[in-house]
Fold:
Amino acid sequence: MPETWPAGVIARYLTVGGATVDLTSRLNVMTPPEPFATLAACSGCPAYQEFSHWRLIWQLEGGQDEEHHPAAADKDARAWAQAHAETCRAVPRPTA
Structure:
């Protein structure tokens, strides 16, 4: 029977070493209640990557705007987590 995911985990990948790579939404005091990034973090090694929900969009007239694209950040985080999980051989830290 699989264990319950920790609160806030939106996706989880199992590494070849038996650890997990968890995806969570990152919040801060500047952006509540909207997350500003998606974090992918491995529980077996120090590897992590943060993917911003904000993208720079270049305008034809010149200049740029920032747009909120959480789905793009989630997609990038999932790809990174999958690639890391396929190669990470770190074992999870014991809980007791």
